[in-house]
């Protein structure tokens, strides 16, 4: 286990100003004690740091105006589990890129104004900070520079899904051209509109579009806007299935029709390109009032908005939190439209929700700590997929339920897919793609890893397709 801290704020001051928020802190200590608190900077910040001091080491990310620094605190590795959601206000900004866990590192982004306070709290809690990376912002700058330079050098860059992250308009154009190239195998349509009126793209890939008798596998990607590798990997999978140039792709299309929501959160994805690279939620305007006044904030976490223990553990009722669950289940057009599209799909067989990062394949249940009756079977299939994934580049993903290997979270897509009132699917899984931690890029994964990551995903999906057909 590792405990990282990275420090800083996104490159432009205006973005930092947008991130002045106040977050709820939720902590739980396994297995008996549960505490929930809502507090301001001094109380919530100290509580978060002190609670983390009792956890095995965790990685953290802090953004410093134009530079991030990784810090590894040392300390007591007592077996205490802590799930913490800490937000930001005018003094303290802690953006959990990944939640505290006993089995993997956790990454947090903190504002520059909180640097000294966080360091002092860590030391007071018995942690010994060690700077691991002095300039994380350079990753964002480098990513933007590469995108700009690549498009100057070659017009093909806007279609190079194996070595470039495409913008949303470029994705639309790429998929339009793919559908035109393979009119008998690829169908592009819209399942509805996003908050800001963009198409929620649906792609169907089939050996014969006129035949609707085959079982269907659904894949959703780019629910969280900053997880660019998920969309890139989905595009790779779509094109490889469409081209039918290898045995695996041929077999996968022989057995199933494949449906994709490759950019489930188009508004957030556009915003992550134009304004805030670390944006997570959709872009719905929210108005919230409290005793200190009213304010406007933006976005709902789409992976907390599904109707399965909605508004429970791992979510926030505050609209300025990254895990805000919305005013009600399916309050967001993105989740409601995807639900309707999947529910109206005949012969649905399986569902995969593609996220990043952490290198995990997660199996049910995610919203409670109780394992389902078919746990052994769904895990066996996931273990086989992990083995197939590892055979490509030697990368090992961890397999398990979210409470066991990550954290419990309610209102998630892959849990909803198994509900009787929902699609009632036996086979429903969530991926957390590369990298393993923020030290290797976090959400800002270098474009050189697009192809290896996508190849691994494809190999594991091929294995899933084979195993669930038995």
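-> sequence recovered:
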């Amino acid at each position: 286990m590792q405990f990282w801290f990275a420090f800083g704020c996104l490159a432009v001051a205006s973005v930092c100003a947008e991130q002045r928020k106040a977050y709820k802190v939720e902590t739980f200590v396994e297995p008996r004690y549960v505490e929930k608190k809502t507090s301001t900077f001094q109380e919530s910040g100290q509580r978060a740091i002190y609670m983390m001091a009792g956890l095995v080491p965790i990685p953290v990310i802090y953004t410093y105006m134009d530079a991030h620094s990784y810090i590894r605190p040392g300390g007591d590795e007592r077996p205490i589990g802590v799930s913490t959601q800490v937000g930001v206000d005018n003094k303290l900004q802690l953006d959990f890129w990944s939640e505290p866990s006993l089995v993997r590192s956790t990454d947090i982004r903190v504002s520059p104004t909180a640097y000294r306070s966080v360091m002092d709290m860590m030391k007071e809690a018995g942690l010994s900070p060690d700077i691991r990376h002095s300039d994380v912002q350079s990753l964002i700058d480098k990513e933007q520079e590469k995108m700009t330079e690549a498009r100057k050098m070659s017009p093909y860059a806007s279609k190079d899904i194996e070595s470039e992250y495409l913008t949303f308009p470029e994705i639309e154009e790429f998929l339009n051209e793919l559908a035109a190239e393979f009119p008998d195998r690829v169908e592009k349509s819209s399942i509805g509109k996003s908050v800001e009126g963009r198409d929620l793209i649906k792609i169907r890939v089939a050996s014969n579009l006129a035949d609707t008798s085959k079982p269907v596998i659904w894949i959703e990607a780019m629910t969280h806007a900053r997880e660019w590798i998920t969309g890139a990997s989905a595009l790779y999978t779509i094109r490889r299935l469409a081209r039918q140039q290898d045995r695996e792709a041929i077999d996968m299309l022989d057995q199933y029709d494949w449906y994709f929501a490759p950019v489930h959160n188009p508004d957030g994805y556009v915003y992550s390109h134009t304004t805030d690279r670390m944006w997570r939620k959709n872009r719905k305007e929210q108005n919230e009032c409290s005793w200190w006044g009213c304010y406007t904030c933006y976005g709902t976490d789409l992976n907390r908005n599904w109707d399965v223990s909605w508004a429970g553990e791992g979510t926030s009722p505050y609209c300025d939190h990254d895990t805000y669950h919305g005013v009600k289940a399916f309050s967001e057009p993105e989740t409601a439209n995807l639900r309707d599209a999947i529910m109206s799909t005949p012969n649905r067989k399986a569902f995969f929700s593609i996220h990043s990062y952490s290198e995990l394949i997660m199996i049910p249940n995610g919203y409670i700590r109780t394992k389902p009756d078919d746990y052994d079977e769904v895990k066996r299939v996931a273990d086989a997929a992990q083995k197939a994934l590892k055979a490509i580049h030697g990368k090992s993903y961890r397999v398990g339920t979210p409470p066991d290997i990550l954290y419990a979270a309610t209102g998630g897509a892959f849990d909803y897919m198994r509900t009787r009132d929902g699609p009632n699917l036996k086979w429903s899984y969530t991926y957390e793609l590369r990298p393993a931690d923020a030290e290797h890029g976090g959400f800002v994964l270098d474009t050189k890893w697009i192809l290896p990551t996508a190849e691994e995903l494809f190999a594991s999906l091929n294995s899933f397709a084979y195993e669930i057909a038995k």
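Residues 281 and 301 are 5 Å apart (CA to CA).
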